[in-house]
Amino acid sequence: MLKRLIAVIFAAVLAGPALAAGGDVELKHRDWSFNGPFGTFDKAAMQRGLQVYREVCAGCHSMKLIAFRNFADLGYNENEIKALAAQYDVQDGPNDDGEMFTRPGIAADRIPAPYANDNAARAGNNGALPPDLSLIAKARPNGPDYLYSLLTGYQDAPAGTKVPEGMYYNAAYSGHLIAMPQPLYGGDVTYADGADTSIDAVSADLVQFLMWAAEPKMEVRKRIGVAAIFFLGVFVIFTILAKRRVWADIH
To answer: Which of 38, 227, 230, 248 reaches 20 to 30 Å from 52, CA-CA?
Structure first.
């Protein structure tokens, strides 16, 4: 009975409403490993998702809140993180002459943005500003399913639907017209572990990575929550037993 009560409470608190993105949009739902009160991140999927971000998304989208050292959560060791950071050029300074300079990245650096500022980003994307992806998985209700549906939702517009130049039809986007070109087609990357590279699989890996980026301490939060609920449940039981003992002689 106590286990069932705990499960019900967690389902109510953590699941949240399954909301669509708006209009006649219907989201695709996946059984994510991080769903539910005992959910955890899939480190292998997150590493693949990082690869997808670096090879496909990083040309337009920044992740300003993520530092290279945070990738330890994905299972990378110190040397791997240093090697990964060194592949980036990071602006630093000023130096002794008062000038800015570039240097190889270090573990403490955050991932460099692809554009110097928002105006440069708009100029490179036909006036549209690519959003930062650091918190994108929490920016919409039912965020993981929304992102997965968006990434796999590009299709030809129905007959009679006019798509303006520079826009694309996406079944999962509110209004169905989106400025972002289709980023994934399947086979976009080559995984070292030989994992599936279909559009569905690659999209799922990317979403797993973006969910971690948005809530890197999710597993810790859930463990604390489970422990707290268990403690409160035991406390309630002992409180009831103590109350019955204290008032046993009162009729």
So the answer is: 38
CA-to-CA distance for 7 and 36, rounded, in angstroms?
9
For domain 2-66+110-246, which CATH number applies: 3.40.47.10, 3.90.1150.10, 1.10.760.10, 3.90.1300.10? 1.10.760.10
Distances from the Cα of 199 to the Cα of 29, 62, 203, 241, 247, angstroms: 15, 22, 6, 57, 65
CB 136 within 8 A of CB 143: yes
Nearest to 131, CA basis, from 68, 71, 183, 64: 64
pLDDT in tens, the chain (251 residues): 434 433 433 333 333 333 344 457 789 999 999 999 999 999 999 999 999 999 999 999 999 999 999 999 999 999 999 999 999 999 998 888 888 999 999 999 999 999 999 999 999 998 999 999 999 999 988 999 999 999 999 999 999 899 999 999 999 999 999 999 999 999 999 999 999 999 999 999 999 999 999 999 999 999 898 889 989 999 999 899 888 888 887 76
Q: Which of 63, 37, 65, 36 is nearest to 52 (CA)?
A: 63
Alpha-helical segments (H) within 66-184: 78-85, 118-123, 143-151
Q: Looking at the whole model, is its pTM more than 0.90?
A: no
Instruction: Please name the residue that has the structure tokens 């009679």.
Output: 160
The C-alpha atoms of residue 206 and residue 251 are separated, in whole angstroms, by 64
